[in-house]
Input
Amino acid sequence: MRIAELSRRTGVPIPTIKYYLREGLVPAGERTGPNQAQYGEAHVKRLKLARALVEVGGLSIASAREALRLMFSAGLSELDTIGKAQYAMTPAREYMEDEAWDEAVAEVDELIAKRGWRVKPANPARRTLADALATLRRLDQDDYFELLDSYAETAERLAADEIETVARRGDLDSVAEAVVVWTAVGDTVLASLRRLAQEDKSTRLLEGS
Amino acid sequence: MRIAELSRRTGVPIPTIKYYLREGLVPAGERTGPNQAQYGEAHVKRLKLARALVEVGGLSIASAREALRLMFSAGLSELDTIGKAQYAMTPAREYMEDEAWDEAVAEVDELIAKRGWRVKPANPARRTLADALATLRRLDQDDYFELLDSYAETAERLAADEIETVARRGDLDSVAEAVVVWTAVGDTVLASLRRLAQEDKSTRLLEGS
DNA sequence: GCAAGGCAGATAGCGTCACTATCCATAAAA
DNA sequence: TTTTATGGATAGTGACGCTATCTGCCTTGC
Output
């Protein structure tokens, strides 16, 4: 198919497709002439995937490219490729390194140890979590920390369900795809559900008083 | 205190404080002359709060302003103000309205009904969730939907814990503050914990095979 | 009392990001 | 044979979150 059909099938405007091609989110089509190329189903899929990561998952173009690259990399049989794809999805940030930060880092390490989680030191989620906890401390939201165990418990159960479900898929390619998509879009799903449940609970609470 | 100390206390550069003042994220100081103003503890707190919403919560300046405005609004005794503050934190987006979208909207309604959640139709999380589910459908990630109940269950338990903890606070101002901060920063905490737990579970799974 | 520096407020500028528009030579479609 | 579409290159756009500069005034240290 040509670019117009690719655009129609995915809902992505042609100039945007060209941009994604330039940025390497979508591989080039098969050239059939100086100014002609053919695209296939793989391109449709890849384009939909790229859009989902950027639009729903909120990834930057650079992060999405990296995640997609790892996801489709040949050495995917090396098992840590999937983990690296996850890492690529956490954008780097600068952290304010004060006492609250040191404390938060220690707290994260402790939590991981307590849960017996086996997590590499390089996992960027460690820093992101520490930053969030440090922020809460700086805002004197101390009672939030009572909830941390409950959060961790919850996260663990979710992860168990997710990994179990995804492991039922046969091929590794398909597993890698699911991990990336579920991570990116799953954040949104979970956050939305949490907001809905919060509204319900607070409505009931206020009604009872 | 003057602006230099405000900057020192919060770690926010002076030009940025001036920008936030212009944008209404932080109220003006008390004027003591044509070009002098005094800031107090309230300004320190408000500034830290604004920074947290923008940096950790990822809110736009406009969303943060709205959330802060509602959070400190006089009519906070009207109970739905807190809910509105939540709504302000979900950025608006455009949705692709195809069959997958209609299906997803119905799915969300069904889920809410099944759970017995009392949620206003205006809650923007409904649309956000529908969009995420529609995206997963378009990517043929059908097995994800097996997890939805588990996600909803999880979200409900989390919300129950959160509301219970926050309700222990005495004054409504403090409750409103916690709701906004916990919503914004809590998303990050939960997402990070989920990633950490995922790495653990997948490490164990791969090791066993 | 007086120079040096800080301050509020206004205005303009900057850098990044994710597109979007234009142009060209060529190729396909009507 | 017009007309439209295409790939690739290059340049432009608009939003966003700051950041820099300027001006007239005030505070501070000597």
Q: What stands out?
A: Residues 172-208 of chain A form the longest helix (37 residues). Chain A has a mean pLDDT of 93. Chain A touches chain B through 86 residues (CB under 8 Å). DSSP finds nine helices and two strands in chain A.
